[in-house]
Amino acid sequence: MTPREWDAKTYERVSAPLEAMGREVLQRLELAGGETVLDAGCGTGRVTAVLAERLPRGRVIAVDGSQAMVEEARRRLPDAVDVRPADLLELELEPPVDAIVSTATFHWIADHDRLFTRLRAALVPGGRLVAQCGGAGNVERVKAAGFELAGEAPFAEHLDDWPGDWHFASVADTEARLRRLGWQDVWCWNTRVDVDLDDPAPYLAAICLGSFLARLPDDLHDEFVAAAVERLGAPLTIEYVRLNILARA
Questions:
Q1: Which H/E stretch holds residue 63?
Q2: What is the pTM of this model?
Q3: Cα(108)–Cα(102) distance, rounded to whole angstroms?
């Protein structure tokens, strides 16, 4: 599956709630300051910038599957941060890194077996994975509203047979997968985060409903988002279920 292209500028403007979640995840990674760390799915670089501050003698490699996100991250981050376009399913790093951080990315990838195999290969023995992504039940109301609209005119001819591109895995499945693939010290758990939106349309368009919009003609984007907002009601609370992952290679 080709990584989705994102509206990086809109994402940068509305993604403060995701940045807050990412900063909390980053606190779980103990650093001495001289390590090499990969940010797997850096987006516009908000969390990457905090990571770079914690590595004054180290190195940060930041990758994303969206060229627009990569360009925005390069504008934001210091030149010392190595920002690259990369598909995580094809990831190859030489030499391997000491740790991998990832926030709000893994649920966009269908093949978690290959994903975690590539990430493990990118780490030194004993290297740490600290990650968070959408888990089972994530944004359930928004997802349901999107698929309801996808079956209605004028959207159905573009979306009716589309199954979605999220992989909201469970804690049990993720722990079992990681152990089967050779990861050690595996610990996964869910957290619930509610995000209140006074102006939900830009947030939904850039983040939660972006995959629907990517498959619709441009002239239907605003209509689809407006219909979703009407169905969900405003002000809107986005109910996130976040799958947290700690493991060692």
A1: strand 59-64
A2: 0.91
A3: 12
Return the CATH number of 8-138+166-196+239-248, one of 3.40.440.10, 3.50.50.60, 3.20.20.210, 3.40.50.150.
3.40.50.150
Chain centroid to CA 21: how far? Answer: 11
Quick: pLDDT tens for 213-228.
Answer: 999 999 999 999 999 9
How many other CB atoms are found less than 10 A from the CB of residue 179?
Answer: 12
Tokens of 8: 């990086």
Q: Which two tokens stand for residue 149?
A: 């609209």
Name every residue whose Cβ is closer than 8 Å to that of residue 77 and which is 6 or more positions away in sequence: 45, 48, 49, 52, 62, 83
CB 116 within 8 A of CB 177: yes
What is the spatial distance between Cα 159 and Cα 156, in angstroms, rounded to a whole number? Answer: 5
Instruction: Give how far Cα 113 sits from Cα of 86, 98, 100, 165, 189, Å.
Output: 18, 21, 17, 16, 19
